[in-house]
Amino acid sequence: MHHTPVLLGKVMEILEECACYGNVVDATLGLGGHAERILSSRKEVRLLGIDRDEEALQFAKERLASFGERFVAVQGNFRNLETLVCDQGFSPAKAILFDLGVSNFQLSEPRRGFSFQNEGPLDMRMGPDASLTAEAVLNTASCGELTRIFRDYGEERHAYLMAKLICAERERSGGLHTTTDVVEVLRRGLPAPMQRKMGGHPARKLFQALRIHVNDELGALNAALEQCSRIVSGGSVVVFVSYHSLEDRLVKQAFRKWETEGLGKRWNRKLLVADDEEIDANYKARSAKLRGFIFSA
Ligand SMILES: C[S@@+](CC[C@H](N)C(=O)[O-])C[C@H]1O[C@@H](n2cnc3c(N)ncnc32)[C@H](O)[C@@H]1O
Q1: Contact 228/81 with Cβ under 8 angstroms?
Q2: Which of 20, 153, 212, 243 would suit a FRET pair with 219, their CA atoms being 20 to 30 Å apart?
Q3: What tens digit of pLDDT does each residue of 118-158 get?
């Protein structure tokens, strides 16, 4: 199982610059790539790793076991960041890292249903706290609701047409059950010139939208952003790596607000992205955007 940590050099640079030794929180532990590097950088670092996904957490626990008591892993949603961090004795945290979205491990497991490239059940839940599967959403939401999901969370221009195709298909066949069912509906129903114009895969934005909706990703991000300032101290740093404009917009707005409130300053005014070398080595890095915020001492 492999997941190359994105913008690792930049993440380490900001942690080093702010002397982030002591309590560090990795709110999206995943397979532990960033965490391993952070733990290796200084003996003084204690790291709390949080992830919604029990399978990823188990993998990371084994990977990072050699760090002994310096590493603590907890299954949970960063929507409850303050409680998780305080309960584990990690407040105040010197650094908090969010590497948002899904990991390659989740994407590459067909049974998780995240990928339009592999056939699997329409699940898409990152963890047990997500109540509805993608299958339930696709088969029960109204056409208007599906249009809203595809448009708001996927920024999909053809949201209404896609929603209509899905509603017609579930009436005809009794329901959609696999990732391939969805891909075939779009392939059959969208006019060929429209599909050509879409550039990438016609189901890409729809899958992103469903995943964000099923896991209430933006709700969790907003909740975490509200809690950060309560679990840091002077000189602490919060770093976000995001992968689409919806996430990045929320982070940007929160950082501006924190600055206006006099809580500290943005580490980078200009958005940091991966260079060509990193993108060549790791395709996922192509859409990554990093923002850091330093709280006032
Ligand atoms: C991009 S991966 C992180 C990869 C990690 N930085 C590494 O180097 O291995 C994102 C991880 O965040 C987790 N995640 C996403 N939203 C979450 C949330 N609201 N609460 C906790 N974990 C979340 C996902 O389950 C996934 O494992």
Answers
A1: yes
A2: 20
A3: 999 999 999 988 989 999 999 999 999 999 999 999 999 99
* 179 C-alpha to ligand 1 centroid (Å): 22
- Ligand 1 contacts CB of residue 112 (under 6 A): no
Give the count of alpha carbons within 13 A of 42, CB side only: 13
CATH of the domain at 169: 1.10.150.170
247 and 210 together in one domain = no
Ligand 1 centroid – CA 61 distance (Å): 14
Is the domain of 97 the same as that of 55? yes
Mean pLDDT by 10 residues, the chain (297 residues): 87 91 96 97 96 96 98 98 98 97 91 95 94 96 98 96 98 97 96 88 96 97 98 96 96 97 95 94 93 93
Question: In ligand 1, which atom is closest to the CA atom of 51?
Answer: 22
Name the average pLDDT for the chain. 95
Whether the Cβ atoms of residue 56 and residue 29 lie closer than 8 Å to each other? yes
CA distance 133 to 145: 15
- H helix runs in the chain, sequence order: 8-17, 33-41, 54-63, 81-87, 104-108, 134-140, 143-154, 159-173, 179-189, 192-197, 204-214, 217-227, 245-260, 276-281
Q: Residue of the nearest CA to atom 1 in ligand 1? A: 103
Burial string for 169-204 (b: 16+ CB within 10 Å, else e) reads: bbeeeeebebbbbbbebbeebbeeeeeeebeeebbe
Owning domain of residue 195: 131-214
- Angle, helices 159-173 vs 143-154, to 10°: value is 140
* Cβ of 156 below 6 Å from ligand 1: no
Pocket probe for ligand 1: among 11, 28, 82, 125, the residue whose CB has the most ligand atoms within 8 Å is 28
| CATH at residue 77 | 3.40.50.150
**Does the CB atom of residue 220 touch ligand 1 within 6 A?**
yes
